[in-house]
Amino acid sequence: MAIQQEAAQIAGEIAELRHAIHREPEIGLDLPKTQAKVLAALDGLPLEISTGRGLSSVTAVLRGARNGPVVLLRGDMDALPVTEETRLPYASEIPGVMHACGHDLHTAMLAGAARLLSARQAELPGTVIFMFQPGEEGYAGARHMISEGVLDAAGPRPVAGYGLHVTANRLPCGMFSTRPGPMLAAADQITVTVHGRGGHASQPHLAADPIPAACEMVLALQTLVTRKFDVFDPVVITVGSLHAGTTDNVIGDQATFLATARSYSARAQSSLAKLVPELIQGIAHAHGLTADAEYATEYPVTVNDAAEAAFATETIAAAFGPARGETAQFPIPGAEDFSFVLEQVPGAFVFLGACPPDREPETAPTNHSARALFDDAALVEGTSLYAELALRRLAQG
After folding, report:
1. For residue range 77-98, what is the model confidence (pLDDT) as tens digits?
2. Residues catalogued as catalytic
3. 141 to each of 57, 147, 157, 259, how far by Cα in Å?
């Protein structure tokens, strides 16, 4: 029986797991309820299972009857601090927390793939590592799992690693998208505090006002993007938070702002880490002020290995038909901590459309929206792709 047919037979159970996870979303690295649901879903399968020491991860190793290479499949499990507005019958029961990015689907699909591949253990020409990861949303959970040994869980390191991510918009349900090279951006955080000297707003010459300097910094960061970086190796800096002062007639002692920086190459990310603090310090000095500028590199660029991206594209075409996959023209400006895995293991990251049929992909609420909806129909597709990638890549040796 074909993988898709087998996935369709357990579609109800995969959806049930997804709904259970969706009702009780958890944030960060500590996901005890989600971890328990995953362990229950894997119970009885011929897997070597271990859990994280410093985080609620689950690593499951399936050893085939025949010796061969190791392939890693990853699904992230954490939610977001978003108050759900979908009115789904299985909507979040936890105030202020929601699976707004579809990680509940990833977890359920990976558990489904573990069932499908376990049923084929006798014919597997190698080993599969199932990486159930917490803390993707800003907690670098993949890096923590790597430090705890997920890449060495089977003994030999994986010859390839694959990650999958659903999208609530942009792609029709069931459509896959990947590309060679950069797939998602690097994401860094800029934290700036401008130190001045407070005073009366009617006599700014007797104070040292941090607000004009902070405003100049915000604008100068945009100029930095256009004058120091190649337009064909783009950079985006967005200031998302700016705070200063308490009222209209008081000059405060300091101004603070937070920004995110996105880039698509290690070279651009490294240049940002050097140039941004220099720019901030220079402007502060020009105003006779001081400033603390912290540039924190968070997630590196998610880079698909060219050969593995081509393999994923070929697998999609063979398993689902050529019309079901696209080669993305551009990377996605979001970031993804599967990038830490792809720094050490060649692999590919693939997007899967999960936009409900009654919504237009171009106008539907995006991932991270309180109104984001993900169609359960994508569960069979994602489960199948996980399993197909592992089976076909192991067969290659």
Report:
1. 999 999 999 999 999 999 999 9
2. 78, 136
3. 9, 10, 19, 22
